[in-house]
Amino acid sequence: MSEKENVVTEQFEQAQVAVKALSEKPSDEALLELYALYKQASNGDVSGDKPGFFDFVGTAKYDAWGKLEGMDQATAMQNYVNFARDLGADL
User: Fold this and answer.
1) Which of 59, 67, 80, 83 is the most buried (most CB within 10 A)?
2) Rounded Cα gap, residues 41 and 24, in angstroms
3) Domain 3-86 maps to which CATH number in 1.10.10.10, 1.20.80.10, 3.40.50.1970, 1.10.10.60?
4) 53 phi and psi, to 5 degrees?
5) DSSP three-state, residue 89
6) What's the per-residue H, E or C state across 25-54?
7) What is the pLDDT of residues 48-62, one digit of tens each?
8) CB atoms within 10 A of CB 18
9) pTM, two decimal places
């Protein structure tokens, strides 16, 4: 791993902790964005079967992650860090 990749990975890990410590819970839309960026950064493109029609939360998560298909994992990590900062996370 390059030095830049190490820095981004470290910031990504710090951002995950900082998001959990936010004084106010983010909106549902923000939480979906965080989830999608986290999954893309950790696992890459969406995989597995799409949840059933009546699993509204599961479907929303799957769809949000699917919108990031093709984004490389380092970019997803950086976007997660940037979004966490926008939400007020102390990084």
Assistant:
1) 80
2) 24
3) 1.20.80.10
4) -55, -35
5) coil
6) CCCHHHHHHHHHHHHHHHHCCCCCCCCCCC
7) 999 998 999 999 999
8) 18
9) 0.93
Confidence of residue 74 (pLDDT cuts 50, 70, 90): very high
CB 41 within 8 A of CB 49: no
Measured CA to CA, the distance from residue 11 to residue 74 in angstroms comes to: 11
Q: Can you tell me which residue has the tokens 């030095």?
A: 3
In our burial notation (b when 16+ CB lie closer than 10 A, e otherwise), range 41-79 reads beeeebeeeeeeeeeeeeebbbebbeebeebebbebbbb
Token couple for 62 = 């799957």
Burial class (CB in 10 A: 0-12, 13-18, 19+), 89: buried
